[in-house]
Structures are given as structure tokens and as C-alpha cells.
Amino acid sequence: MEKLSASSIVNSGPISIICYCVSSILMTLTNKYVLSGNPNYNLNFLLLCVQSVVCLLLIFFLKNFKVINYREFNSKEAKSWSPIAILLVVMIYTSSKAIQYLSIPIYTIFKNLTIILIAYGEVIWFSGKVTSMALSSFILMVLSSVVAALGDDKRSVSDLSSSASFFGLNYGYYWMFSNCFASATFVLYMRKRIKLTNFKDFDTMFYNNLLSVPILLVSTFILEDWSEENLYLNFPTDQKNSIIFSMIFSGMASVGISYCSAWCVRVTSSTTYSMVGALNKLPIALSGLIFFDASVNFLSVSSIFLGFAAGLVYAVAKQKEKAEDAKQHVLPVSQKQ
């Protein structure tokens, strides 16, 4: 058998797809393990800070070995990018709170609602449009979220059920809705800034993490409890090493997602990447059923497949929209008489 060379691996579509899927699943699972594995864990800002620091160190290491490249630090660019860093912190914090209280399937399904907000935000700010097929996918997304909520018979996946609800609804849902709005605002504003700055993927990643670290550090020291008693509750002796390792590993996985996303687009196509993103929701949701104490019933399983179908329909709708736009930009060739 012919051995795989380094260049053949780097340019392999199937391998890039597998790596992208594995990295996103691993990050979701490790975050869930840290935030819900220990019911007393409450240092969310610390977790996010560790992830950002690990991400920075890893991309610095990769740049030194010429695996990736990004622009050097510029104070003027950093100042103009700082609002995005603040939005990023809001987005990842609300995400961490949502996944702490909600099961992975519920979190994954409700995350689809962000797509709707982004789509209509693009209509308002970027003269985008929503086709009938895209609208159909939005209806499926809302339906899958309603079915998921109805099937969530545990209401809370943590041991804090007595204090984790508000008007009978798990706090995680409030954090989830907040995260959807924060994510949509972050994506739309960042898209606008990228057009102005011409940032590449790793430029964006470098500035996002670099500028978010001081915000996260200040937040964890001011807003979180760093007493000896609370640190012991967050890092009990029997779980301390595994929790720290998971925090570091999730930071490495975040780099993996960014790198594998760019890799997948480069060696396949944007169509394939969109499809993979839609298909990937299914294994992520199912992993929550397998590895964590998530509700398993007809409604919860149905919501996963509805959410999967919604993502797939949306991916197809976007590709059809792109193909139609490409046709409109092709000038007709005049024929000689």
C-alpha cells in the first residue's frame, strides 16, 4: 500500500472534514465536563481565560514553525477591534452559562436560532435576502427548539434544580437566548470590521484572544469568588487534575476548530464546508445523549433530527442563493449576426 505523505494529508478533503468534526465535538464535550461535571463549578470567566491563553500560546507556537501566519500586533488596529473583543467575551460567557445548565442536545438545537437572527441582521445591515427555502429552514429550527424544550423532562441537568429555575423555566434557557442575541451581534459586527480591516482568519483569531484575555482576567478576579473554600469546591482533590487538563484541552480544541475550518474550506469547497457544519450538529447532539445525563425520549430525539434537517435545508438554501448570485453576475455574451 502507498504511504500517505505529509502533503497528501494536508490536501485531503476527507481528513480535513474528520478533523473539523472531531475538534468541535471534543471542545463541546470538554466544556460540558468542566462546567457540569462538578456541580459546584462557578469560575466560568477563569475557564474562558485559560482557553484564550492556551489558544494564544498555541497559535504563537504554530506561527514560529511557519504552520500558520497572522499579522503583527498594531495598537491602532487593537483599539478599533476592542469592541469586538468585548462582544466576544459576552458571547462566550453566555454560552458557558447556557451549556452549564442545559444538556448538549438542547444547547446544540437552540444554537440554530442564532442563524435566524444573523440572517435577518444581514437583511437589515448588508442588503441580504431570505429565500423561501431559507424561511422553511427557520420554521424547522423554531419547531425543533420547541420540541426540544417539551422533551426536556429533566429541566435542569445540574444538581442546582432548586435554584436553577425562574418562573418554572431552567436558567439555561435565559442564558441560551442571551447567547443567541450576543452571538448574532458579534458575528454581524465582526463581519463589518473584517471588511474594513481585511483581516484573515488567524488575524481575527489572534486579536480576539489577545484582547479578550485582560477582560476575562479582570472579570474573574472582580466578579468571581477566589477564596480558598471556593477554589476547593471548584477543584476538588479527586477531580483537580482532570478539570485543569480539560480546561487546557478545550483551548487547544478551539484552535483546532479554527484551523480545521480554514483547512476544510481550502481543500474542499464552501458548499462542502456548509454541509459539514449542518451534518456535524447531529453527532454533537448525540454525544450529549451518550456521555452526559441528557433526556432521552421521543421528543428529545425527534428535536435532534429536526434540528439536523433544519441545518441541512439552510445549508442547501445558502448554496442555491450563492449559485443564483453568481449567475446574475455573469454578463451575457453577445452573438455575432
From TrEMBL:
Membrane-related topology note: Multi-pass membrane protein
Primary localization: Golgi
Residue ranges crossing the lipid bilayer per the database entry: 12-29, 41-62, 83-103, 109-126, 133-151, 171-190, 202-223, 243-265, 272-292, 298-317
Keyword Protein biosynthesis part of the UniProt annotation: no
Superkingdom of origin organism: Eukaryota
One Gene Ontology CC term in the entry: Golgi membrane
Entry's localization field: Golgi apparatus membrane; Cytoplasmic vesicle membrane; Endoplasmic reticulum membrane; Membrane
Annotated keywords: Cytoplasmic vesicle, Endoplasmic reticulum, Golgi apparatus, Membrane, Sugar transport, Transmembrane, Transmembrane helix, Transport
InterPro entries per the UniProt record, alphabetical: EmrE-like, TPT_transporter
Quaternary structure (record): Homooligomer.
Purpose: Involved in the import of GDP-mannose from the cytoplasm into the Golgi lumen.
Family: Belongs to the TPT transporter family. SLC35D subfamily.
NCBIfam families for the chain: nst (TIGR00803)
Protein name: GDP-mannose transporter
